[in-house]
Specification:
Strand content: 15-25%
Radius of gyration: 17 Å
Number of strands: 6
Helix content: 10-25%
Oligomer: single chain
Number of domains: 1
Distance between the termini: 21 Å
Structural class: alpha+beta
Length: 149
């Protein structure tokens, strides 16, 4: 997308989408407390990298859960291109700050929430060429929280 901002909340290039939260909660004893765009996660550039997501999941009372982690871009964030800045790396952790591995089977104990801070995409082009209007739009939508990147 060399002339548009990156796609947010998507796994490029696969474009895999998850099932709706309601269907996920219906199939198992879990609650998804939050699923939202991750501010400041897309790399700066003339065209901003797509934003990652923050997803917060907890087992219902009296339950715990295991999951198979297959997260990329945790140790190596997405690179920018043509002068664009890299995206922000992902984080897999529990709500008490315990870091989890990005790959392999993981256990979330009862009473703990799994927090997935999914990575953002790299920016494209020189950040100095990003328009004032585009930056203002990003701030107004909460995509970025800084005045100047």
């Amino acid at each position: 997308r060399p002339d548009l901002d990156g796609l947010s909340a998507t796994a490029f290039p696969s474009g895999v989408h998850t099932m709706p939260i309601e269907a996920t909660e219906h199939t198992g004893p879990i609650v998804i407390w939050r699923k939202e765009l991750r501010p400041d996660s897309g790399g700066d550039g003339e065209f901003r990298g797509g934003l990652g997501q923050v997803i917060e999941i907890e087992a219902t009372e009296g339950h715990e859960f295991d999951f198979s982690a297959m997260f990329d871009r945790v140790n190596h964030p997405a690179h920018g291109r043509e002068g664009g800045k890299q995206g922000v790396a992902g984080v897999v952790r529990l709500d008490d700050g315990t870091k989890m591995r990005p790959k392999g089977w993981q256990h979330v104990p009862a009473g703990r929430r799994l927090i997935l801070e999914l990575p953002g995409g790299g920016g494209y082009g020189d950040p100095a060429r990003r328009s004032v209007a585009a930056r203002a739009n990003d701030r107004s939508k909460g995509y970025i929280t800084e005045n100047d990147r």
